[in-house]
Structure formats: C-alpha cells, structure tokens
What does this fold into?
Amino acid sequence: MHFKFIRFSVLIFCLPSFVIAQELAQEFSAPLITGNEQVRLSDYRGKLVFLDFWASWCPPCLVSLPAYDKMYRELDSEDFEIIAINVDEDIMDGIAFLEDHPVSYPVLADPDGEVGIPYGVRSLPVSYLIDKEGRIVQRYRSYKSGDEILLKQLVEELLDR
Amino acid sequence: MITRLLTFSLLLLSLLPLTQTEAATCSCAGAPLLSSIDSSSTEPGDFFFNYTTEYHEMSDLVEGTKDIRDESGRERSSISQIVSGTYGLADRWSVSGLLSYIEHSRSVGTSFLGEQNTSGLSDAVVLLRYTPSYITPFSRHEVSLGVGVRLPVGKDDAGGLIVQSEDMQPSVGAQGEILWSSYSYAFNQASTLQLNLSANYTFNNEENERNYSFSDEFNFAVGISQSIGTRFGYSAGLRYRTTDADERNGFEIPNSGGEWLDFVPAIQYGVTDDLTLSLSGRVPIARDLEGALQFTTSYSYAFSMTYAL
It folds into this structure.
C-alpha cells in the first residue's frame, strides 16, 4: 500500500517540470474594434508591448483599462506600446465602454478568441508584457489597484536596458 | 472554542428553516471527503488551501422509505475538520490532497452512561485531475476527470479494549480507489450563472483489520451556481448517493446500504480576491434504505474558507 502511495507521489511531483518553458509571444492579426484595419503584433517588433485582454462584463477590467491608459500617457515612450484586446461576444458592448472611457492606444476586437485562445486566456483580465525580441517577460492575472505602478517600474527598467 | 461556537450558531440559524424538513444520509465512518474537494479549475502553479468544518447529525430512524419515531432518545452526530490543498501541476493537470480529523458522538437516553465518543485522524485522499476543456471567455463547457486514492492514515481501532462499531471509527481502515468527474456549463460569457454536474465512484474492495469492508459508493450531483457582483455567490443542487450493503468476512451486513437524495444549498462571500468564505448545508429529500431499520442523516452544515496562494 505504501509503495503505491510513494509511486503516486513521485508521479505528482515530477509533473511540474512540464510547466516551465520560455515562451515566444504568438503572432496575431486582429481588426481594430472601431474599424476593419488589421493590426499585427509584428507591427510592433523592436518595441516593448503590453498586451491586455479585457471585456465590458469584467469588473476589474473596467478599472484596469483607465489605469493602464494613465500609465501609458505618463510613460509617453516611443519604445512602449499597449495593445488592448476586447473579447466581448458583442463588440458593441466594448465600443460603448470605450465611448465613456476612451483610451489612447489601439483596441482590437477578438470576439471568437482567435487571439485569446492561442494565448491561453481563461479568465479576465489577463495581460502579457512582451519584450523587444517578442518574448513574454511577464504574465499578469487579474488586476489589483496599484498593479499599474509596478508595471510602470518594470517597463521603465526594461526600457533603460 | 468561542469562535467555533459562534460559527456553528450562525450556521445553525441560517439553516434553521431548511432543517425543519425530513432528513436523509448514511452514518458511515470517516469524514465527507470528496464533497470537500473543489471542482473549480486550476491554472499551472496555482495553489488553493481549503479548511472546512462540518457538523453532521445522524439521528433519523428509517425503515425503507418510512421514517420511524425513535423512542430511545438516541442521538448520533459527528464533527469533521478537513484541510485540503489543490495545486495546478501543468496546463490541464492538477492534484488535490485532503486530510481530515473527526469526532463521533453517540448517546442513548438521557444518562451520561449511554454516551460514547470517539475521535481521531480520519482518512486522506489524493486526487489527480485532468481537465480537457475549461470555461473561458471563448468556451462555455468545462469537463474534468480524476483518479484518486483514499488512504486509511487515521485511527480505526477507537474504543480501547472494546473496539467501537465501524460507524464510530474515525477511519474506514482500508484503502479505496476513486473515479471522479465533473461538467460545468456557463449560461453567459461572464460565466456568472453555471450548471454544474459531478459524479464520483469509490471502490471499497479492501477489508479493514476486522474483516469489515464498506461497500462501493456512487455520488451524483447536479446544481446551479450564480455569482452576484464581485463578492457574493450562491448555489443550490441535488445530490444522489447510493451504496450496497457493507460486508464482514464476505457476508452482507443487514441494515446497511441504500439510496439518498439530498438538497445542498450554499452561499459564498469573497472577503478579498484571495479569500472566500462559504456556508453550505445538506437536507435530505428522499431515501430508500436497506434492512429493517437504519439510523441515518438528519441534516448537516459546513463552513469553509478557501485561500488562494
């Protein structure tokens, strides 16, 4: 019986080794939420990119979006871009929110998950900081007030390198 | 102690209207293990810690489907303390481990001489889960499958020189294997309203040291859960449970086994993003029990807190 238990435990503790992997951000192309113009991640190669998935029904997103916009305007750097990806099934819900809370960076529409599914979006908000070489530096799940301050510090640090 | 008393009083008050109805469930040994393992999905590296305390009253006397008035003044209850952890091993894989401590109490009549108490470490469960499909903003379905083992790490010889009956032992005293599954459907993209189904089967094919074996057990649950705002949630469901008769030395034990149908309501409150408190109850709706007479569950209620590390 104890032997069975030991075998089971070994199996369980070996599995985490599959988890850790250096990830390259997946290339994508999606339309702007307010038009048909396609935006590609590769358009921003050589820049630090913050990719932010959100929806109008996600309460923390409604706080994080204006907070990230404020941070983006404060940084005002040519080497840093934010791309927001709205995943509302009805994109009109996302547009309605943006009418009340406009942001100064591009917002793309992804109602079917063509971008979100490859990025493994399971809950919202979720964001990715992607370095100039296209590697995912950091993944952020959920949002707490003040997260944007820590993000700003990291962005400044990476831009200074 | 005072905190525990307050907690139980609050639980009791909140469930009072429900406990007026007729009750049902079994008086088997050990703690309610599988119902304490959360079925929600876990991302790689996530760790959830859960503590549950459950009070279980088992004083109803039943013959088949009929309630019998018990003139003996017999009372039977248990209090379980259950700690469990769930860790996201990899994408789609998670493992849960659970350990429990249980206090059984039985009294007949009003004399203290008729009171018996046992307590000790109960069983442990390890469950490995695979989730091929998650609820996400792009998918309304979640399917999860699991295999596990119940380990008799606890005490199964309570009572000293005169060993207590099997239903008063903290541990079942024998290993069991578990098959587990769950399915959830989100009615909207935000998944604030969900249909939840779960089923599990426990194989109890080993005898304990007294040549007693609990029968296999099947549980099926269906329910609806809804979150209200960012902090509150509730769920309501039905749980069906069936077991065959227990056996000793290969012979069936009379007055054991049957079918139970319970109503299981619960409310949740998210104190912070990481800490959730939950209050749940179990109220019998129907039962059909084997044998001439069986004592079975009157009601139970539980308080639990889950912390995401």
